[in-house]
Design brief:
The chain is α+β, with helices and mostly antiparallel strands. It contains twelve helices and 17 strands. The strands form three sheets. It has a seven-stranded mixed β-sheet with strand order 6-5-4-3-2-1-7. The model has no long low-confidence stretch (mean pLDDT 90).
Length: 374
């Protein structure tokens, strides 16, 4: 029986959504016959192995890290294994890991780097794309470099904004840009901190909110009459598999956190979206270009904006909510099959241990002696 470590939680504004995704995936993988190690990352840091936990309810009122229930055992990564801190001889070595951390360091490449350093195969995107796409400013620069269509924007850094004359410069740039604009914290997801500014007072308020959450902000031209489209992709047997395209409907200017997650029936969408074939083909081109640029393993979801016949690549999520399983089928059976394909692909791409060149320079007489070291 293969062992899969499912990581979820983390230091992020999307911590609770990550718990939902993590337990959802852990339970589905158990149903598929895997031995699952649920690894919870508290907002205070560290890792907790909660092998016996099965429900989201177990995370609703967790105490401080010092007083966590005994089933939340503190572990660390060492030599490809999860090691119990209090009982170091208790080691469990996963055959593969699945990243269910939304936002923060978990989605932003740090967890990917830890897994890579520990030699644990991953069924999720790697360090480079995870770090790049968590930052909307860097992501836009990369997408432009790939020749993909993006909305015109400007980037603002808090350090520059707070400096003498910085606020006036930022406001002048926004004035020249033209209202309305949409203001986005650069490294947050789930629409947290995003606002549409119709005028300068609204722009100032939106910036103050965004800078309370992040030290960099992306300001984009607001597209009136836009349509929100989503498409996911993953790699299976070396081939890229694309999902159906979804259109998500919002009651306001932007799709809010509440519409995405809170309450039954608040999220309104249509799968497949009613769009022209050329738009569907352009979305496929964009998703394929990103997957091929990184050789991405795991599932990603691209979010697009359509205005008339013009398509724009809005952003890309390397750990999408529920790992975008719903875009590949409505049933739990189809979601389970997706997760199985992801972890099997991850295990198949286990690092082969390419050779490392040893120069032998430390043994050379050239650098022997304290004088030479200088």
């Amino acid at each position: 029986m293969k062992t899969i470590a499912v990581f979820f939680g983390g230091r992020s504004n999307e911590h609770e959504i990550s718990v939902i995704t993590g337990m959802y995936c852990a339970n589905l993988l158990r149903g598929a016959g895997y031995n699952v190690l649920p690894v919870y990352l508290p907002v205070t840091g560290g890792m907790r192995l909660c092998a016996g936990v099965r429900s989201v309810d177990d995370f609703k009122e967790l105490p401080s890290a010092a007083a966590m229930p005994k089933e939340f055992r503190e572990v660390l990564l060492d030599g490809g294994a999860l090691v119990d801190v209090k009982r170091p001889k208790r080691r469990q070595t996963p055959d593969c890991a699945l990243n269910c951390c939304h936002g923060g360091a978990g989605e932003g490449g740090i967890l990917s780097a830890l897994l890579e350093w520990s030699g644990i195969p991953s069924a999720s995107p790697g360090v480079a794309e995870s770090a790049l796409f968590l930052d909307k400013i860097l992501a836009k620069t990369f997408l432009i470099g790939l020749g993909l269509p993006v909305v015109e924007s400007i980037a603002l850094r808090e350090s520059e904004y707070r400096a003498r004359g910085g606020a006036e410069t930022a406001e002048a740039r926004a004035e020249a840009f033209g209202f309305p604009v949409i203001v986005k914290p650069a490294r947050l997801g789930s629409s947290i901190g995003i606002a549409v500014a119709e005028d300068m007072p609204g722009f100032r308020r939106a910036l103050q909110t965004a800078f309370r959450l992040d030290d960099a902000v992306l300001v984009e031209r607001y597209l009136d009459g836009k349509r929100d489209l989503n498409c996911a992709a993953y790699r299976c047997d070396g081939k890229i598999v694309l999902s159906s395209v979804e259109e998500v409907f919002s009651s306001g200017d932007i799709l809010t956190f509440r519409e995405k997650y809170e309450g039954e029936g608040t999220r309104r969408s249509k799968i497949p979206a009613e769009i022209p074939d050329r738009t569907r083909a352009e979305i496929a081109r964009c998703m394929t270009a990103v997957m091929e640029a990184f050789g991405t393993v795991g599932v990603i979801r691209g979010d697009f904006l359509l205005v008339g016949e013009e398509l724009y690549f809005n952003e890309l999520n390397t750990v999408p909510g529920s790992l975008a399983a719903y875009l590949f089928g409505e049933s739990l059976h189809s979601a389970r099959d997706l997760l199985v394909r992801l972890v099997e692909e991850g295990m198949a791409r286990r690092q082969t241990g390419k050779g490392i060149i040893r120069s032998g320079i430390l043994s050379s007489k050239v650098f022997s002696g304290s004088k030479r070291i200088k």
